[in-house]
Write a structure and sequence with these properties.
alpha+beta; two-stranded parallel ribbon
Length: about 90
Amino acid sequence: ALLEARGYQIKIDHQSIWENSSPPVNVDLVFQLIPAFKPEELSCPSIGIRPLLRDLNDRDTLEKVFQIVERTYPVPAAGPDRRIQEGTRP
């Protein structure tokens, strides 16, 4: 919801490393509760989100997420709500 409020259309997929230990494919950002994948194993940025287990609104972790997303996938201005333009990568 926080990313959507910033103009991103997102889809979240869940992958359990106990069920599938391969690096995720066709994703734009990986959230890791435990460090299962090294950066060189992934084709996209990744961020550790363990602090969110204690506090879902952990300011430092959320700010890291926003920084990575906004740096990697800038949202084009498209009116007052900054909706992402169709055909662009979220």
